[in-house]
Specification:
Layout: H1 2-7, H2 12-41, H3 48-73, H4 90-98, H5 101-135, H6 137-144, H7 153-187, H8 192-243, H9 252-278, H10 289-299, E1 304-310, H11 316-337, E2 342-349, E3 352-359, H12 373-382, E4 386-390, E5 397-404
Parallel strand pairs: 1-2
Antiparallel strand pairs: 2-3, 3-5, 4-5
Helix pairs in contact: 2-3, 2-5, 2-7, 3-4, 3-5, 5-7, 8-9, 8-12, 10-11, 11-12
Length: about 400
């Protein structure tokens, strides 16, 4: 019953978009056809290209209005396509505008939006009015032709048809709203290549920021930690040298204490250096990705089953990304999931490597919830990888990372 009521209901924004959107759709459609028609006629003259350039800029502006209307009334956020760089000179700028895919896509959107706008207005206004006329047909006939009517089957059929069409109004409006959302996403947003470039730029900026933070932290730790340990070790060795003074003879008990202290300081310094260099290149990867993943699973506080099929040896950068991804996911399972067991699967074949980590925890994990998944997705995007999270409330949680085994 609830599902049927949901299908028969229409949000106010969808109805308003069908009504208010018609004038803008008519304006955009007439504008698009005028640009295409006049541009074709003027293509053999000097005014042809400047007219098309101005038309494409206007189409971009109308596309912005439609994008805002879709976001405000239909609740569909459409990413704004980036503006092309405008070089100096009118000819160079005109060439950039003519080759800008966003302008042509906006013009094509205006052409397709016109029939959708007319259909939406018909479904939201004309169809309900027609249904009201059909339902009230017996009344209108009696008002126009008073007196007894021998046959009432036409009246009954009219009322039944009106009620049937009235039930189809919400379905029609919802279907046309879905079509308008899809059309806006497809043509008013950035092209796939532009979106990919933007994702790579964002991922590159994230990696640069992370690497800068890493090197700054490494420099600070070396200065405040390792360097201080080495200075203390030098002082201890200097004191040991004084204990070997030939004038008074060697002080063996004091010398033994200083040597033990120097050995301890050396061990602490080596351990500190190992800790600092562990995040730069994992030593576990020296034996291969399979051994590294097996070692990660063995050290996890949650029992982890491992299934590996690495028939292709991935690029070292890809292997490093998979290793750190697995380490981050297993850490999340131990800290946040409350899982009793987990499963790690890695498969490399056909030029792609896929890592899947599954746990039986409480679920409800998602990108941007503070578990590091967003940063992990950005790092994978920098190596042309993707991260998918499937975590319904109550579990299980399945996180899949996929990236190419070879990086160009």
């Amino acid at each position: 019953m609830t599902e049927r009521r949901r299908h028969l209901s229409v949000r106010g924004g969808e109805w308003a978009f069908a009504v208010v959107g018609l004038p803008l759709a008519l304006l955009g459609g007439v504008y698009a056809f005028a640009v295409l028609y006049a541009g074709t006629l003027l293509s053999l003259t000097v005014l042809g290209l400047p007219f098309v350039v101005a038309g494409l800029l206007g189409a971009r502006g109308l596309g912005t209005l439609h994008r805002r209307l879709v976001g405000r009334l239909l609740g569909e956020y459409v990413e704004v396509p980036g503006k092309p760089p405008l070089p100096a000179g009118l000819i160079a700028r005109g060439r950039v505008v003519l080759t800008d895919p966003a302008g042509w896509r906006a013009l094509f959107y205006l052409v397709l939006r016109l029939p959708l706008g007319v259909l939406g207005f018909a479904a939201a206004v004309a169809l309900p009015l027609g249904c009201g006329w059909l339902i009230g047909f017996p009344l209108w006939i009696r008002l126009l032709q008073p007196g007894p009517r021998p046959d009432g089957r036409l009246d009954a059929a009219s009322t039944a048809l009106g009620l049937l069409l009235l039930c189809a109004v919400p379905v029609a409006i919802r279907s046309l709203s879905a079509a308008n959302r899809h059309l806006a996403r497809l043509l008013l947003g950035p092209a796939r290549a532009q979106r990919r470039v933007r994702e790579l730029e964002t991922a590159r900026a994230t990696l640069l920021a992370d690497n800068t933070d890493l090197f700054r932290r490494l420099e600070r730790d070396l200065h405040d930690g390792t360097q201080a340990r080495l200075v203390a070790l030098a002082i201890t060795l200097s004191l040991a040298e004084d204990a070997l003074s030939p004038t008074a003879g060697p002080d063996l008990p004091r010398l033994r204490v200083l040597v033990d202290r120097a050995r301890t300081q050396t061990d602490d310094t080596v351990a500190e250096l190992r800790r600092l260099t562990r995040g730069i290149h994992p030593v576990a990867l020296d034996g291969g990705l399979d051994e590294a993943l097996t070692g990660l699973a063995a050290t996890s506080s949650v029992p982890v089953g491992v299934h590996l099929d690495l028939r292709e040896r991935p690029h070292p950068v890809a292997a490093r990304a998979v290793y750190f991804c697995a380490a981050e996911l297993l850490t999340n399972i131990a800290k946040h999931s409350g899982a009793r067991s987990a499963e790690l699967t890695a498969r490399a074949a056909d030029g792609r490597i896929r890592l899947t980590v599954r746990d039986d925890g409480r679920g409800d994990a998602a990108l941007g919830t503070g578990t590091g998944l967003t940063g992990l997705a950005e790092r994978l995007a920098a190596v042309d990888g993707i991260l998918r999270v499937d975590s319904p409330p109550g579990g299980p949680t399945v996180v899949t990372a996929e990236l190419p085994t070879r990086l160009c």
